[in-house]
Write a structure and sequence with these properties.
cell wall biogenesis/degradation, three-stranded mixed sheet, binds manganese (II) ion, globular, 17 strands, binds uridine-5'-diphosphate-glucose, about 625 residues, 2 domains, alpha/beta, Spore Coat Polysaccharide Biosynthesis Protein SpsA, Chain A, glycosyltransferase, single chain, transmembrane
C-alpha cells in the first residue's frame, strides 16, 4: 500500500537482495571466465599426453558456461506478485425470525460465504438477526467451531457448493468422492452440529450447559421479546486474534453477530434498518471497501463469486463507475413446471439483461456486491477512480471488549436521531439520508435507484451456473403475499421522492427510467386487468359486441397482436430454460397476482402514502410441510 492509501488489485515486488545476488553472480561470471582462460592457455601441445581429453573438457566447460548464463536470466530480475492487497470484502447476512428462517438454514448460508475462495484476513461476515434469537446465536457459535474444519476441507478438496447442506445433498454415495475418509468425518461433524442445533430449536431454549459455552449468552439476560431488547453484539471470531486459526493453522475470517436494539415505540425499519445498523458497526470493525449482501435463505453456490465481482469493480476502463454488481438468483425449491411461477425466470434471463443495457440492473437485495461509499450516499464524479483506498484497520490497538462496546452503541434504536442517518421527509415517504432507504417494502430497489440517480452504473452478472441459490415461496398464498409486498413497494417508489418518472429524469437513461416504471406499474395494472377480465364477459351475456367480428378486417390486428405476443412470450420462456407447462402456469399465476396481490398492493400503498397504515414486512416462509412440498 502506498502512502496515499492506494491499493492495487495486485502488487509486484522485486525480490529482496537483488544487488547482492547480482554482485555474487558477477563474481561467479569472473570465476568462470578465469577457468576458461586457464583451459585455453594451458592446453597440452600437440603430441602431448591428454590433449584431446583437455579439449573435450574445454568444450564441456564452455557449454556449462553458456548454460549458466541462461540460468542467470531466470534469476537476475525476479519479481514476486502478491494479491494480498485485494480490497477487504465484508459480507452482510440478514435473518429475522428463527421459526420462519431456521437457524440451520442461516448458518449454511453463513458457512457458504465464510468459505469463499478469498484471503481470509480480507473477509468478514456479519450476521444481522432481527429476532435477536438466542438459538440463532447458538447456531452461529457452533458454526464458528465447525468452520475451523469446514473451510480447510473446502479449500483442500475444492468443494462446490460450499453450503454444507447443499454439498452433502449433492453427494449421494460417499464412495463417489475420492477422499471418502475425510468426507465421512466432516459429514459426521456436520450432523452432530445439526443434531445439537435441532434439539435446541425444537425445545425453543438452551440448556445451562449450552449457555455456559460462551460469555455472549449473558447479553440475553435483559431480553424481553423480539420487539423489545437491547443491542446484542458479539464478535465470535476476531480475525486479528493470532489464536483464531483453523485446524491447519490458517487465519479465519472475522465473524460477528448483531441484533440491533428494538423498542416497541421505535420503528426498526426491517431489513433496511438492520443493514444500516450493520453499516455503522462494520465501519468500526473491518470497514472493507466492498459490502456483499445476501439474505439468509440464499447460499453461495460458487466460491469464486467474490473474485468475479471484483473483476467488474476493478476494470481499468469502466470499473470506476460501477456502484454495485448484482448477480442472478436461482431457486432450489421450485418444481419443474413452477406451479406458482415464482422463479422469476424471464426476469433473470431476459429483463435484467435489458436493464443492464440501459445503465444497470436493480439492486434486488441478495447476491449483490456494493462499493461501500455508494451505499453511504456518495455521488459519482470524475474524481472517482477505481483505486481502492484502504483506511487503516479501524481495529488497530483496540481490545476486543472495547471494540464491542464501541460498536454496540451504533446499533441502538435512538442512534439515528439527529444524525445524518436521520430521516429526510418527502412528499409521501421518509428516507434515511445515508445507507439504505427506509419506508419502502422494497428497500433494495429504491436504494439501487437512488444510487443510480447519483450518477453510478450497476452491472448484472448471470453466470451459467447460478452463483446464489435460495428458496422461493412455494404455496399460492405465500406467492401472492410476496408479490403484494413487491407491487406495493415498487408503486410506492413511483409516488416517492425518488420516483423513476420524475426524480430520475435526466439522471438515468430514458430506457432505465421506463424499466423502473415497468415494475412500478405492476400495482396499478390491476385495474385494467380486472376490467378486462370482468366487463367483456358481462357484455358478452348482454350481447353488446366489444370486439370486431372475425369476418371484419379489424379482426386482423387483434388476432395478430394476441397470437404474436403469446407466441413470443412462450418462446422467451422456453429460451430462458422453462417448460411449456411452466409457461402455462406462469400465465395462470399472472392473472391471480394481477387481480389480488397487485390490487391489495395498490390499496396499501395509497393508504400508506396518506398516512393511514403502518409499514409492515411479511417475511416469506422458508420451510414447508412435507405434503406442501409434494
Ligand atoms: O424485519 C426484517 C424482515 C426481513 N429481513 C430479512 O430480509 C430478507 C428478505 O426477506 P424474505 O421474506 O425472504 O423476502 P423476499 O421476498 O424473499 O426478499 C426479496 O425482497 C425483499 C424486499 O421486498 C428484499 O429485502 C430481499 O433482499 C429480496 O430477496 C430475509 O433475509 C429476512 O431475514 C430482516 O432482516 N428484517
Ligand atoms: Mn427470500
Amino acid at each position: 500500500m502506498g502512502s496515499d492509501g492506494y491499493v492495487p488489485l495486485f502488487e509486484t515486488k522485486k525480490v529482496k537482495g537483488r544487488v547482492i545476488y547480482r554482485l555474487f553472480s558477477v563474481s561467479i561470471f569472473v570465476g568462470i571466465r578465469l577457468i576458461l582462460v586457464y583451459r585455453f592457455k594451458c592446453i597440452p601441445r600437440e603430441g602431448e599426453d591428454g590433449r584431446w581429453v583437455w579439449i573435450g573438457l574445454f568444450a564441456a566447460e564452455l557449454w556449462f558456461s553458456l548454460f549458466w548464463v541462461c540460468t542467470q536470466a531466470l534469476r537476475w530480475n525476479r519479481v514476486y506478485r502478491y494479491e494480498d492487497d485485494l480490497p477487504k470484502v465484508d459480507i452482510f447476512v440478514c435473518t429475522a425470525d428463527p421459526m420462519i428462517e431456521p437457524p440451520m438454514m442461516v448458518i449454511n448460508t453463513v458457512l457458504s460465504v465464510l468459505a469463499y475462495d478469498y484471503p481470509t484476513q480480507k473477509l468478514s461476515v456479519y450476521l444481522s438477526d432481527d429476532a435477536g434469537s438466542e438459538i440463532t446465536f447458538y447456531a452461529l457459535l457452533e458454526a464458528s467451531h465447525f468452520a475451523k474444519e469446514w473451510i480447510p476441507y473446502c479449500k483442500k478438496f475444492r468443494v462446490e457448493p460450499r453450503s454444507p447442506e447443499a454439498y452433502f445433498l449433492s453427494i449421494s454415495d460417499p464412495n463417489d468422492v475420492k477422499e471418502t475418509k475425510e468426507f465421512v468425518a466432516i459429514k459426521k461433524l456436520y450432523e452432530d452440529m445439526e443434531n445439537q442445533i435441532g434439539r435446541a430449536a425444537k425445545l425453543g431454549r438452551l440448556s445451562g450447559e449450552q449457555q455456559s459455552k460462551h460469555k455472549g449468552f449473558s447479553q440475553w439476560d435483559s431480553y424481553s421479546s423480539i420487539r423489545d431488547h437491547d443491542t446484542i453484539l458479539q464478535i465470535l471470531v476476531d480475525g486479528r486474534d493470532p489464536n483464531a486459526r483453523d485446524i491447519e493453522g490458517r487465519s479465519l475470517p472475522t465473524l460477528v453477530y448483531l441484533a440491533q436494539e428494538k423498542r416497541p415505540q421505535h420503528p426498526h425499519n426491517f431489513k433496511a434498518g438492520a443493514m444500516n445498523a450493520l453499516i455503522r458497526v462494520y465501519e468500526k470493525i473491518s470497514n472493507g471497501q466492498i459490502i456483499h449482501n445476501v439474505d439468509c435463505d440464499m447460499y453461495s453456490n460458487d466460491s469464486q463469486s467474490v473474485r468475479d465481482a471484483l473483476c467488474f469493480f476493478m476494470d481499468e476502463e469502466k470499473g470506476q463507475e460501477v456502484a454495485f454488481v448484482q448477480f442472478s438468483e436461482g431457486f432450489k425449491n421450485v418444481t419443474k413446471n413452477e406451479i406458482y411461477g415464482s422463479s422469476f425466470r424471464v426476469g433473470m434471463e431476459v429483463e435484467f439483461h435489458g436493464l443492464d443495457g440501459n445503465g444497470g440492473p436493480l439492486y434486488i437485495g441478495t447476491g449483490c456486491f456494493h462499493r461501500r461509499d455508494t451505499l453511504c450516499g456518495r455521488k459519482f464524479d470524475k474524481e472517482c477512480t477505481n483505486r481502492w483506498y484502504m483506511k487503516n484497520d479501524p481495529r488497530s490497538e483496540v481490545s476486543l471488549q472495547e471494540l464491542e462496546a464501541k460498536s454496540k452503541v451504533l446499533a441502538s434504536c435512538t442512534y439515528e436521531e439527529n444524525t445524518q442517518w436521520g430521516k429526510e421527509a418527502s412528499l409521501f415517504l421518509t428516507f434515511s439520508n445515508t445507507g439504505l432507504k427506509y419506508g419502502c417494502p422494497v428497500e433494495d430497489v429504491i436504494t439501487g435507484l437512488s444510487i443510480q440517480c447519483k450518477g453510478w452504473k450497476s452491472v448484472y452478472f448471470n453466470p451459467e451456473t447460478k452463483a446464489f441459490i435460495g428458496v422461493a415461496p412455494i404455496t399460492l398464498p405465500q406467492t401472492l403475499v410476496q408479490h403484494k409486498r413487491w407491487a406495493e413497494g415498487n408503486f410506492l417508489i413511483l409516488l416517492s421522492k425518488y420516483s423513476p418518472a420524475w426524480y430520475a429524469l435526466g439522471k438515468i437513461s430514458f430506457g432505465l427510467q421506463l424499466g423502473y416504471c415497468h415494475y412500478s406499474f405492476w400495482a396499478p395494472s390491476c385495474f385494467a386487468t380486472l376490467y378486462f377480465s370482468i366487463v367483456p364477459s358481462l357484455y358478452l351475456l348482454k350481447g353488446t359486441p366489444l370486439f370486431p367480428q372475425s369476418s371484419s378486417l379489424w379482426f386482423v390486428p387483434f388476432a395478430y397482436v394476441i397470437s404474436a405476443k403469446y407466441s413470443y412470450s412462450l418462446a422467451e420462456f422456453l429460451w430462458s430454460g422453462g417448460t411449456i407447462l411452466g409457461w402455462w402456469n406462469e400465465q395462470r399465476i399472472w392473472l391471480y397476482k394481477r387481480t389480488s396481490s397487485y390490487l391489495f398492493g395498490f390499496i396499501d400503498a395509497i393508504l400508506k402514502s396518506a398516512g393511514f397504515s403502518d409499514q409492515a414486512f411479511v417475511i416469506t416462509a422458508k420451510v414447508a410441510d412435507e405434503d406442501v412440498s409434494e
